[in-house]
Amino acid sequence: MDFNAFVNGGEDVFIYTGLLTRVKNPNALQAVVAHELGHMVGGHMAQMSARMEAEMKRTLIIQALGVGLMVAGGNPSLGAGVMAGAGGVAQQSMLSFSRDEERIADDIAVDLLVKANINPNGLVTVFEQMQDMTGAAEAKINKNKTNHPLTAERLNNAREKISKIEHSGKYTGYSDKEFELVRAKLIGYLYQERQILDKYPYKHTEDAAIYARSIGNMRGGALDSAKMGVETLIKRDGDNPYYYELLGDIEYQLGHYDDSVAAYEHALKLDEDAPQIQTALALVLSERQKPDDTERGVSLCKASLLAEPAPLTYWVLAKLYKDGRSYWAMAEFYNMNGDKKKAKKFAKQAQKNLNPDTPEYIKAGDILNM
User: Fold this and answer.
1) What digits encode the pLDDT tens for the residues 153-185?
2) Can you tell me the distance from the alpha carbon of 347 to that of 362, in angstroms, rounded to the nearest whole number?
3) What pTM was computed for the model?
4) Contacts with 279 (C-beta within 8 Å, 6 or more apart), sequence order
5) In this structure, which of 57, 120, 152, 326 has its CB flanked by the most CB atoms within 10 Å?
6) How far apart are CA 99 and CA 153, in angstroms?
């Protein structure tokens, strides 16, 4: 798993799970996000596109010059050399431009962190960790042939800038415990059982370790062990909605629908704006099928979609609906998954079974017109 993050021109920051599971503390993670936001604030994606276009034009001009030298009866080898060198000139120019943008993004990151009252030394922590991972390899790299400045340079620049900052008071931010729980949840869901135990052996009894092992046990089918673990966590902290979320997941897999619903409902009392928990509860309600379960499930799905549209939520909504709207929900499910053929197929079925004046009929039409 790569220790990396990036932006690609929109308003989203993409962070590799390898970074999330290995970065040292929440301040370091916030510093990574601040660096990527620095690219956005600096307009670097647009500038990079414009620079690439300019370099392409320059390359074509140089190549045309090389052709001209060859055709004019001059030195053919000289003309060929000019043509061959054109791409190298453009590449070096782009690498230099990219390195400058990385320096600017680092600089902006420090400013953003300080303005947000977040400790900017998280950036130093990231660069120190990167240097530990790649320092030996970087010592052999030509600094002019990379698209990022060498980590040692970035580390020195960050330390120098931060040393000049005057800040009174205490920085805010997430606690290490909150961060460790987020990391444990990722590891619990993404790692194999052996890897989870390597990271969190049974001798470790802190909350994050129990959380990761409980998720791993649930995934591996050891549901009773998973339930014992999460019940221990709830005894320690009965106000954490995500412990109840996990309990709901486990009870659902045990086939205890009523207990699962109770756990999810309690989680939503603690955190009412949790789309993934709303969808999970709606799924259980779609299978339990007690009076009012369908209505409650549909309401939960709609709330979840407003906050964070996701394919699974549309799939659950399709299970809940018993009419033409089910076809529309499946069309949305396949559309979000990138299967345009099946999306259009279900959209056609939806329009055959819905009145033209319904929102779902109109939304199905939007899919058909894509």
Assistant:
1) 999 999 999 999 887 667 887 788 999 999 999
2) 10
3) 0.82
4) 300, 301, 304, 310, 312, 313, 316
5) 120
6) 11
Q: Please give the single-letter amino acid code of residue 310.
A: A
Report CA 44 to chain centroid distance, whole Å: 20
Backbone angles phi, psi at 172, to 5 degrees: -100, 170
Alpha-carbon distance 228 to 230, whole Å?
6
Tell me the C-alpha to C-alpha distance, in Å, between residue 257 and each of 253, 284, 325: 9, 7, 25
Q: Name residue 190's beta-bridge partners.
A: none
Write the single-letter amino acid at 101.
Answer: E
Residues 6+ apart with CB under 8 A from 302: 317
- Name which of 106, 142, 140 is nearest 126 in CA terms: 106
d(CA 257, CA 251): 7
Q: Count CB atoms within 10 A of the CB of residue 86.
A: 20
Region of residue 355 (left: phi > 0; alpha: psi -120 to 50; beta: else)? beta
Give the integer Cα–Cα distance in Å for 303 and 203. Answer: 41
Which of 132-141, 279-288, 292-301 bottoms out in mean pLDDT, i.e. has the lowest? 132-141
The amino acid that residue 212 corresponds to is A
Report how far residue 32's alpha carbon sits from residue 16's, in angstroms, rounded to the nearest whole number: 11
pLDDT of 356 > 50? The answer is yes
Q: Based on the number of CB atoms within 10 Å of its own CB, is 256 exposed (0-12), middle (13-18) or buried (19 or more)?
A: middle
HSE on the CB side for 105, CA within 13 Å?
A: 23
Residue 198 to residue 215: CA distance in whole angstroms: 15
Evaluate if residue 136 carries a pLDDT over 80: no
Q: Are 154 and 127 in contact (CB under 8 A)?
A: yes
